User: Fold this.
Amino acid sequence: MHLLIIGIASYLMGSIPFGLILTKLFLKKDIREIGSGNIGATNVLRTGNKIIGYTTLILDILKAVTPVIYVKFNFPEFLYIASLCSFLGHVFPIWLKFKGGKGVATYLGILFAINIYFGLIFITTWLITFALSKFSSLSSLTASFSIPIYLLILTQFDQVFFFTIMFILIFYTHRENIKRLKNKEETKTKIY
Assistant:
């Protein structure tokens, strides 16, 4: 019973579309009709409103941190279920006919909730890749891949499987970006 409740609650929390809510509320625009049509923070930044973009980023992180931290301290055996469900909620939100974001900010929230060092490794890798490439998508893919690699180096094999699955999911959500990167058609991102 706890498993079902935790899974559903984490999914529903993850599926709150903050990018859509904030752009409609403050900009009177539908983020799904701007840029890539994605509801995530990177696309919200394309509206030109950095405050709304970064607020979306923070809220998308927090909507994963909240259920995962709660489960970590109260039902630790369901930690990865809560993590996966909050991520799937963002990527496939029930409120938007299962068409959501790419899950990177939500994944970052999961990393910080599970282990703060994972979050710091992700951010460091993301920033280095972004400084070199200016591609948000490439930075997200590289940073996501860095976590299972880090765990392999530390021989923490019990966690490698979960974080490899998460990388595969992020790879899937970025499949169009990967095509554009391959064809040198990907748009560079301005984060400040």
